[in-house]
Amino acid sequence: MFTGLIQSVGVLHRLEPRGGDVRLSLDVGTLSLAGVALGDSIAVNGVCLTAVMLTERGFAADVSRETLNLTTLGALKPGARVNLEKALTLSTPLGGHLVSGHVDGVGTLLERQDDARSWRLRIQAPDELARYIAHKGSICVDGISLTVNRVEGAVFELNIVPHTLEQTTIGDYRPGTRVNLEVDLIARYLERLLLGDQAAASPPTGSRLTRQFLAEHGFFGQ
């Protein structure tokens, strides 16, 4: 588990194809690897990866075909900057929100506007994730815990303060940039709990958590 608070911006040193998947070698920048052991988890742009090799300046991790297909990692080039966070411990302040490092989909930046010293971003999420994105709810973008300011269908808006711009890769974003998205973990579990016994009969794609379903179970007034 992670918090979505980025601890360092690293750099991709090498991307090595290996029998259909790849091995990433990364320089971790200012991230301390003290206490990190082989097999430990580190989030790279919001993707939970396992350290299979450690060096003085970084680590290497294998990325499966599944992860390459569902995230932006396979499109990275040597020299690309990435957001890094070590797995949280029981003593870690939970300043962001609970993040699993399991990417739900890839979004696209539609628009970037200056707003005083901040930026406002509009991001298009995959349609199937729209039901999990709520006004003033949490979302993880490339591993960064952020608050949703506005939602219009599958498009949501974020306000990025100067500190976040300086300490993450968001300052590199331009319209068309593809980003890893992880929706609020609680929303996913809530959906399954509300479905109750119907969850076992649900299709593998889509959701039965509709407005009609919620109305039938007393979530809307008469």
Automatic annotation (TrEMBL):
<dbReference type="Pfam" id="PF00677">
    <property type="entry name" value="Lum_binding"/>
</dbReference>
<comment type="subunit">
    <text>Homotrimer.</text>
</comment>
<keyword id="KW-0686">Riboflavin biosynthesis</keyword>
<dbReference type="InterPro" id="IPR026017">
    <property type="entry name" value="Lumazine-bd_dom"/>
</dbReference>
<dbReference type="InterPro" id="IPR023366">
    <property type="entry name" value="ATP_synth_asu-like_sf"/>
</dbReference>
<comment type="function">
    <text>Catalyzes the dismutation of two molecules of 6,7-dimethyl-8-ribityllumazine, resulting in the formation of riboflavin and 5-amino-6-(D-ribitylamino)uracil.</text>
</comment>
<protein>
    <recommendedName>
        <fullName>Riboflavin synthase</fullName>
        <ecNumber>2.5.1.9</ecNumber>
    </recommendedName>
</protein>
<feature type="domain" description="Lumazine-binding">
    <location>
        <begin position="1"/>
        <end position="97"/>
    </location>
</feature>
<feature type="domain" description="Lumazine-binding">
    <location>
        <begin position="98"/>
        <end position="194"/>
    </location>
</feature>
<keyword id="KW-0677">Repeat</keyword>
<feature type="repeat" description="Lumazine-binding">
    <location>
        <begin position="98"/>
        <end position="194"/>
    </location>
</feature>
<keyword id="KW-0808">Transferase</keyword>
<dbReference type="GO" id="GO:0004746">
    <property type="term" value="F:riboflavin synthase activity"/>
</dbReference>
<dbReference type="GO" id="GO:0009231">
    <property type="term" value="P:riboflavin biosynthetic process"/>
</dbReference>
<comment type="pathway">
    <text>Cofactor biosynthesis; riboflavin biosynthesis; riboflavin from 2-hydroxy-3-oxobutyl phosphate and 5-amino-6-(D-ribitylamino)uracil: step 2/2.</text>
</comment>
<dbReference type="InterPro" id="IPR001783">
    <property type="entry name" value="Lumazine-bd"/>
</dbReference>
<dbReference type="InterPro" id="IPR017938">
    <property type="entry name" value="Riboflavin_synthase-like_b-brl"/>
</dbReference>
<feature type="repeat" description="Lumazine-binding">
    <location>
        <begin position="1"/>
        <end position="97"/>
    </location>
</feature>
